[in-house]
Every structure is written in C-alpha cells, then in structure tokens.
Amino acid sequence: MSQPGTAISVVKEIEKYKVKIVALQEIRWNDEGTIDINDTTILYGKYNERRQFGVGLAVCKSLVHTIKEFKVINYRIAILIVKAKLFDIIFIYVHAPTEEKSQEEKEEFYAEIEDILSRINNSKIRIILGDMNAKIGKEQFLKLTIGKYSLYETTNDNDIKLIDLVTGKGFRIMNTMLPHKDINKSTWRSPDGQYINQIDHILVNERFTNTVNDVRVYRGTDCNSDHY
C-alpha cells in the first residue's frame, strides 16, 4: 500500500464487497495512526527498519464506535478489540515470516502470539487472521483442528508451527474446515498467474467456531496485490 493511490483502491474494493473489518499486511507506511477514506477508517502500524511489512486494519466507519482498543505490537502483529453484544471480539492481525526465514525469527513470531493469547481471557472471542505463510495439510489425526478441505496433502515447516499454536491454544483453522471449490480456497497467485497457494488463514478459538457461517476467497478484487 506504499504506492500512490493504492489505499484508495483497497478501500474501493472493501466497500464494493461490503466487508466491515479487513486485515491488512504489507502496508509499508512510515508511522502509526489512522486515516479516513470514504466510509472506511484505516488503523495502521509502521514498517520495519528496511521499510518492509507493516500491519493494520480497515474498519467500516459505522463500527468505529465499537472499537475498545487498537494496539500495534510490531511490524508483523496488531490487535483490535471490538465490543460486541455479548462478548468482546479480539482480532489478532498477523503477517508470519516466510518459509526461508530463520528459525529464530519464526520462533519469535509465534512466541509473541502465544504471549498475547496468555493475557486474554478465554471467555472472549479470539480470531487470528492474516498471511500465515503456511500450507496446511490433510493429516487425519489433525482433522478436528484443520478439517479436510485444504489444497495440500502435507504440511510445511511453517504449518507445523501453526498447528502447534492452534492445538496448544485451542483454536481451529476455519478456512480448511469448510468445503469450497479450489479457486475459492487459494489466497495467493504467482506474478505470472501460473501458481496458486493457500497461505492466508483464519483461526477461531474452539468455543466460538459454531458462530462462523462461512470462510471463502473472493477472487474479483483488484488491489494490485498478489493476494486475494
């Protein structure tokens, strides 16, 4: 979103699909703050020392009054707490290290998420979402946690760490729990359009998975991004 006009294009697509809350990665802005564009408010964190990454969210202005807290943890993680009718909803927005990053960087990322979760009351709705850079398999012994509708048969290293997180903290990966066509599962495409991946995920704590109606990809968005 560092290119001129990109934020406006993103908001246009968000409002076209009438999405109320959206996780944003690779913002690459040089500060923390908020900005209003049309009927959407963007809350954002700054990039790292190499001017990379940066996470945040876009929220419909009609919901801004429900925000209890927005906190940027670092250039990969941010937290939003929203007041709902019965429970607070806690969104943890993330951008995980890619497979080739060092083990230390990956472990620090997941340790930070675990630390955040350890400080949140289990009675609240907790949703972790974003670019996890992880390919989920279809291992039968993990069926209750990951379902059976992934694009892949086996896991990669990042996915093992993700599965350790969801099993250890009582989450389920909802986008592989529900059946859809493959084109509505893939979340990333290669620049030449020849390859697709399912690496963005939505995790919900087990107590509240029955509140999820559906999770799917909408491929029609046009935001100059390699992610859907």
UniProtKB/TrEMBL annotation:
InterPro entries per UniProt: Endo/exonu/phosph_ase_sf, Endo/exonuclease/phosphatase
Limits of the Endonuclease/exonuclease/phosphatase domain: 10-215
Protein name: Craniofacial development protein 2-like
Pfam families, sorted: Exo_endo_phos
GO molecular function: catalytic activity
Coiled coil: none
